[in-house]
Each structure stands twice: as structure tokens, then as C-alpha cells.
Amino acid sequence: MAVDPLIELRDVNKHYGALHVLQDINLTVGRGEVVVIIGPSGSGKSTLCRTINRLETIESGTIRLDGKPLPDEGKELAALRADVGMVFQSFNLFAHKTVLANVSLAQVKVRKRKKDEADKRSRELLGRVGLADQAPKYPAQLSGGQQQRVAIARALAMNPKALLFDEPTSALDPEMINEVLEVMRQLAADGMTMVVVTHEMGFARSAANRVVFMADGRIVEDRTPEEFFTAPESERARDFLSKIL
Ligand code: ADP
Ligand code: MG
């Protein structure tokens, strides 16, 4: 596939003290592409995600979004965080705000929409994630799967160029995993550019354009799901798959 790059990491390195957590990372995510990142715990998957919307700084290398280097601070940084939405394992909703307010808040603050306009967009998106009737409730009144779908609606409300998901279903009870993956599959089908850290291999197989396997801070494999799951090249990946499949 001819790739129109949206996210590009070149020779990215980062340490935490003596730990070389990201080592010479080169990764391109094309517009509309879904890249699933897998790998053992501690391999640097979350750190990699967090560098892309600059929740983490890097020591060397470059990261570009839509051809432009990531900004360091100020308004540009706030705009970047809106352009590259992030969905975490812990949903991070505001407990004292309604579902509707959770989805509307940043639209007003960051995107400078009028409240009415923001609420209209929020209702539309809540409908899209199957939560049209939950708008007046508070997060604690919702199940984990519903809360995570609110978090996805909130990220979508910013009209992001890309969405990053860091283990979005890891904190959920098993019966709620599918309702969240289903929303993510729909986003992928609608052409959203997505980077997804997950242990859900079914999702990787069915929704990913590419699977990136990380170990010890490096990208060890970067291939189509079919290639990766049928014939992993590295011993590390074979060993990892043998433990989780
Ligand atoms: P993964 O998401 O693949 O489990 P992480 O990116 O969270 O891996 O972490 C990679 C490594 O970096 C781990 O060894 C972790 O302990 C370490 N690490 C992560 N965040 C920090 C931090 N803020 N300070 C020091 N070490 C960290
Ligand atoms: Mg992690």
C-alpha cells in the first residue's frame, strides 16, 4: 500500500536513567492506517505511545505529525494533544461531571466551540458509541465498558487526526471487552488513523494493517498481521506468541 505518512518517528531514543527504554525507533503510520503494538510488559509500548502526543520527551530523533515536528510547549502543544487523542486503560473521566459534560468540556476549552454546539456534537458521538441514553448520568453509574466508550467519544469530539489507545480493554471485565473493540473496529472501518497497544490478538488479526512487535525498547518486527501471526521471524516474537495464544 502506498503510505501517506501521518505519524513518523525517526531514530527515536529515550532513557529513564540507565534504562534505554526506546532504542532507535523508526515507525511510520499512514493516514487511515491501524497499527497494533504488541510485546511483553516493560518493552516500551506505553512510552512509545506517550511520546507521540508528547506526554514524554525524547532525547534524540524526530517525531512528525502531518509532516511537522511535534511542538514543545504552549498553544501548539495543547493543539497537538487535541489532534492526537489518547485513550488509556483507566478511563480518566471526570467523576463529578456528567457523561455529556465529560465529552463536551475540552471541545469548549480547547476547540473553542460554543456550549450548545459542543453538546450537540457530544450527543451525536455518544450515539455513535451506543450511549445515547447515558448522557445525563455520572461515570460511576456506568459499567467499565460504557465508561471506556465515553472516553472514546470524548477523544473523537476533538476531531483528532489520530487516536492512540494504550491497552483500552485491559481493565475491563471479559464480557465488556467486545463492546469496546466493536467501537474501535467501526472507527478503523471509518478510516481513523489508530495506534493501538493491546493484548487482544483477535482485534490485531481482524482490524490491524500492521502489527509492530516490541521487545526491550526496540521494534523487532513490523509486518502485516497475517505474516506476523503465521510466521513470526524472531525468536522473541515466537516465544511471546506461544505464551499468549
Ligand atoms: P510497556 O507499556 O511495554 O509495559 P512501558 O513503556 O510502560 O512498557 O515501560 C518500559 C520500561 O520503562 C519499564 O521497564 C518501566 O518500568 C520503565 N518506565 C516507564 N515509565 C517510567 C518512568 N516514568 N520512570 C522510570 N522508568 C519508567
Ligand atoms: Mg504499557
From TrEMBL:
GO MF term list: ATP binding; ATP hydrolysis activity; ATPase-coupled polar amino acid-transporter activity
Pfam families: ABC_tran
Catalytic activity field: a polar amino acid(out) + ATP + H2O = a polar amino acid(in) + ADP + phosphate + H(+)
PROSITE patterns tied to this protein: ABC_TRANSPORTER_1, ABC_TRANSPORTER_2
UniProt GO cellular component terms: plasma membrane
Superkingdom assignment: Bacteria
Family: Belongs to the ABC transporter superfamily.
Protein name as catalogued: ABC-type polar-amino-acid transporter
